[in-house]
Amino acid sequence: MSSTLSLREDLRLIADWVAPDSRVLDLGCGDGALLAWLARHKSVRGYGVDLDVANVVRCVENGVNAVQGNLETGLAEFNDLRFDHVVLSQTIQAMHNTEQILLEMLRVGREAIVTFPNFGFWENRLQILQGHMPVSETIPYQWYNTPNIHWCMLGDFEALCAKNGISVLERVVMNEGRRVHLFPNLRGSLAFYRVARR
Amino acid sequence: MPMSDNQQSVGIVAAQTAVFDTPLTLASGTVLSSYELRYETYGTLNARASNAILICHALSGHHHVAGRYHADDKAPGWWDNMVGPGKPIDTNRFFVVGVNNLGGCHGSTGPSSINPDTGKPWGSAFPVVTVPDWVNAQARLAERLGIRRWAAVIGGSLGGMQAMQWSIDYPERLAHALVIASAPKLSAQNIAFNDVARQAIITDPDFHGGDFYAVEAIPRRGLRLARMLGHITYLSDDGMGEKFGRMLRSGEYQFGYEVEFEIESYLRYQGDKFSDYFDANTYLLMTKALDYFDPARDFDDDLAVALRQASARFMVASFTSDWRFAPDRSQEIVKALVEADRDVVYAEIESVHGHDAFLMTDQPYVDLMRAYLKRVAEEVGA
User: Fold this and answer.
1) Mean of all residue pLDDT scores within chain B
2) Residue A84's pLDDT band (boundaries 50, 70, 90)?
């Protein structure tokens, strides 16, 4: 499997945040690339959750535990604080029950890692100024066929955390594989958060 | 079931009998001093005996899992679409064992067998057996066949319960448990259906308290009703609607009580066929084994604690239209496995086939089985 050799850039950053020998729940796990890498390089015990049975089959092929399930209905299969890290990668903007999944993640896990495309990225703003909804590498959809229904910028996500008594432990903002330190909400296309209950 | 070109049958097969003279103490406390198990095998056991798979059957199943006894047999074994060369349970790689459980009516010792103490059929004297009893008997068969550790124990419905029980009772003796369309225990509704089926049999005047063999009677009406009721629970409302709808055999209402709707015809046919070959006492016993199954009971009713005994890795699968053992019931197993820190893959397969879907070939189900068993084969060097 190629993904055990080279992990996608954004998943690599998430992997860096995961402690060795920890327990990880990966929501929207796809083919299980992150969990396979973590098992191999950090001896992590993990489970993936995915809505699509085809992805569960791909996880089997990659030797990853996977549970078919719908994140919109919560994480009923998992008891409180079963995990050290719960990962939701570039999915929160496509969810109906955005606030609920964040709370569920911190019910079943000590820490949550959430990543999403930053709507405040300057290219998006420019396209809006030009009279169109943004389409880009991180947002590759037209307005009429996008699964993304809950857009937010860095400040919006942080406000949602604050409202729910969740603190931001770490934040990284990236663009084209590079970390953005200056004016992140303008220059960053992808946001990474590590959050926990206060 | 149509087969694609690269998938073949295991061909002509023959059943074998293993005789056991070491007494087996059952959960009820009764001791079976000796017994026979009827079984079939497909494929070849490798030198390390690491490639063996046990197939556990459900309520009306048996050891004839794949292939045909004679070239002109109408139907092959009951899981021929899953077991064979190039099929998901690939007999080119695995040594597959099918066994008729104790109390069965397909050659293993059961109520219709001769009780050596009396020289007559056991009938009502045959002890009630449980899922753990079956697993104990299967474990002895494994020893007889030189299998110290199964690569996988696989079963659907009641068969899945045996796979679960294996993982708890003999953790070191299986690498994988595949639990399909199953449940961690029966619900009150499940037990209720079973009891209606039992009452249909027991109240049949031809049942004779279970000793109908002596008078050469068969409680056909009871068995037929039990099977008709069972069949309703195996199909989904949608699946039944799709297949039969309100179709009338003659196209017109007859204003009487003869067979009119196609669904009536189908159920009666299934009931008749079943009552021709299945033993009434075995039916009672199988439904009782289902009712009693509850592995958490020995562990303070905590399924996670029960499954913490296991060291196998699990595949759990359910089917969306199965209301006999609905996906919720499989999720209970998955939740307990995660709580117990066990490896598990769980899929909820989209299907209109209801509980029977575990015997069908919905594509995602076949894909999942194929992918999972390929991993198993690689892992055990099959």
Assistant:
1) 96
2) very high
Chain A residues closer than 8 Å to B334 by CB? 67, 77
* CB proximity under 8 Å: A 78-97 to B: 78-79, 82
Give how many domains chain A has, as a whole number.
1
Residue A37 falls inside a structural domain: yes
Question: Which of A68-77, B281-290, B313-322 is predicted with the least confidence, judged by mean pLDDT?
Answer: A68-77
pLDDT at B25 over 90: yes
Is B231 part of the annotated catalytic residue set?
no
pLDDT digit string, tens, across residues B143-159: 999 999 999 999 999 99
Averaged pLDDT, A161-170:
98
Q: Is A53 on the interface with B (CB under 8 A)?
A: yes
Q: Is A67 on the interface with B (CB under 8 A)?
A: yes
pLDDT score at B7: 66
CA of B151 vs chain A CAs: smallest distance (Å): 16
Domain range for A84:
9-197
Q: What is the ipTM of this complex?
A: 0.93
Answer yes or no: is pLDDT of B224 > 80.
yes
Check residue A138 and give its pLDDT. 84
Q: Is residue A2 part of a domain?
A: no
HEC-encoded secondary structure of chain B: CCCCCCCCCCCECCCEEEEECCCEECCCCCEECCEEEEEEEECCCCCCCCCEEEEECCCCCCCCCCCECCCCCCCCCCCCCCEECCCCEECCCCEEEEECCCCCCCCCCCCCCEECCCCEECHHHCCCCCHHHHHHHHHHHHHHCCCCCECEEEEECHHHHHHHHHHHHCHHHECEEEEECCCCCCCHHHHHHHHHHHHHHHCCCCCHHHCCCCCCCCCHHHHHHHHHHHHHHHCCHHHHHHHCCCCECCCCCCCCCCCCEHHHHHHHHHHHHHHHHCCHHHHHHHHHHHHHCCHHHHHCCCHHHHHCCCCCEEEEEEECCCCCCCHHHHHHHHHHHHHCCCCEEEEEECCCCHHHHHHCCCHHHHHHHHHHHHHHHHHHCC
Decide if A3 is inside a domain.
Answer: no
Q: What is the mean pLDDT of residues B369-374?
A: 98
In a domain, A147, yes or no: yes
Residue A100 belongs to a domain with what CATH number? 3.40.50.150
Q: Which residues in chain B are closer than 8 Å to A61, comparing Cβ atoms?
A: 371, 374-375
- pTM attached to this predicted model: 0.95
CB proximity B350 to A under 8 Å: yes
Contact A82 B346 (CB under 8 A): no
